[in-house]
Amino acid sequence: MTRTQKQLGLFSLLLAADQLSKWWIQQPDFHAFTVIDGFFNIIRAYNPGVAFSMFADLPASLRQWLLPGITIGIAIAVLFWWWQERRHAGITSWLLVLILTGAVGNIWDRIQLGYVVDFIDWYVRIGGSEYHWPAFNIADACISVAVVLLLVTGFRKH
Fold first, then answer.
1. pLDDT tens for each residue of 115-150
2. Does the reported pTM lie above 0.70?
3. Strand 129-132, strand 33-36: pairing
4. Which residues are part of the catalytic machinery?
5. Residue 157: what pLDDT?
């Protein structure tokens, strides 16, 4: 199996996991539940904006076209970058696959539903207060992990 085939396999596997998890969360009989008390829940949340609900307050008519359009443009740029990097032995092409997977997973939601489905709720309890990270999904995790690792590795080809 070639490197490109492995990367396409990873893309397919993660995209399927993202979409299946979002499908499950949207089922009428789904109920939020605690995975690790004081740290991690599975919930149902809808994000009409982008990362951390940025631009969620834009008029719906503008969000409907602007956010998918920007995301599609970024996905196309990442696809071209991946195409150039895919034969190199470094980690960059693998990380670009993660970014592309996340972009496609969220574009699909945004076009199909008009919002992105989120369900991972991380938080900590300190004293009597809870501090929650914004809810996210598998696609968001793929993008976030890849971007951090790209920054850490310095976009290495070796």
1. 999 999 999 989 889 899 999 999 999 999 999 999
2. yes
3. unpaired
4. 118, 140
5. 57
* Sole residue written with tokens 């409907």: 64
Does residue 104 belong to any structural domain of this protein?
yes
Domain assignment present for 87: yes
Residue 158 lies in a domain: no
Report how many domains make up the chain.
1
Strands 116-126 and 40-47, how do they pair? antiparallel
CA distance readout (Å), 23 to 38, 76, 81, 109: 26, 25, 30, 10
Q: Which residues are CB-neighbours of 90 under 8 A, at least 6 positions away?
A: 153, 156, 157, 158
Domain-embedded: residue 51 = yes
Beta partners for residue 53, in sequence order:
none
Q: What is the dihedral of CA 70, 74, 77, 79, to 10 degrees?
A: -130
Nearest in space to 137 (alpha carbons), one of 58, 3, 45: 45
Q: Residue written as tokens 């990097």?
A: 85
